[in-house]
């Protein structure tokens, strides 16, 4: 009945002695990533706000990547996905990926429509 949780993060690079110390380790890692996001959001350095990559500022890509890193560690460690079977992990991850891609598609389509309405001052679809 007793199932031992894995007590390391970063693919075994950082090991802990107990579950409590592991929770605090992941918590402090997530705090550090959040602090980096906050500092970048407040300072908005020129090296991150000027260049564009795939129609977005570099700082926006940094925020997206750091947010995905935090989401990964929250689900992997706090929601105990690491200790589940491969099938359950894949069903959770693939469902989330599908829904996120679908949401992005809807946002891009609607955003393009709103952009055209404001730019050309006409409506393509009359709902």
Could you explain how this protein is built, in words?
Helix content is 67%, strand content 6%. The protein has 127 residues and is mostly helical. The strands form 2 sheets. It has a two-stranded antiparallel ribbon. A two-stranded antiparallel sheet has the order 3-4. Helix 1 packs antiparallel against helix 3 (58-78). The radius of gyration is 20 Å and the shape is flat. The model has no long low-confidence stretch (mean pLDDT 80).
E-strand count? 4
Count of the domains: 2
Q: Please tell me the overall pLDDT.
A: 80
Please tell me what the overall shape is: flat
Radius of gyration: 20 Å
Low-confidence stretches are none
Percentage of β-strand residues: 5-15%
Structural class: mainly alpha
Order of helices and strands: EEHHEEHH
Q: N-to-C terminal Cα separation, in Å?
A: 57 Å
The side-by-side strand order for the widest beta sheet comes to: 1-2
Largest sheet: 2 strands, antiparallel
How many distinct helices? 4
Which percent bin holds the helix content?
55-70%
Features:
4 helices; mainly alpha; two-stranded antiparallel sheet; flat; 4 strands; 6% strand; 127 residues; 2 domains
Describe what is shown at a glance.
The chain has helices at residues 19-43, 46-49, 58-78, 86-120, and strands spanning 8-9, 14-15, 52-53, 56-57. The protein is mainly alpha-helical and 127 residues long. Strand 1 (8-9) and strand 2 (14-15) form a beta hairpin.
């Amino acid at each position: 009945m007793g199932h031992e949780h894995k007590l390391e993060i970063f693919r075994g690079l950082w090991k802990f002695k107990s579950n409590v110390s592991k929770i605090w380790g992941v918590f402090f890692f997530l705090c550090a990533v959040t602090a980096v996001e906050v500092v970048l959001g407040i300072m908005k350095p020129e090296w991150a706000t000027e260049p564009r990559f795939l129609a977005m500022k570099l700082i926006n890509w940094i925020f997206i990547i750091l947010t995905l890193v935090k989401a990964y560690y929250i689900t992997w460690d706090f929601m105990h996905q690491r200790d589940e079977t491969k099938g359950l992990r894949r069903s959770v991850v693939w469902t989330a990926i599908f829904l996120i891609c679908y949401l992005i598609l809807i946002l891009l389509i609607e955003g393009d429509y709103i952009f055209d309405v404001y730019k050309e001052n006409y409506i393509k679809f009359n709902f």
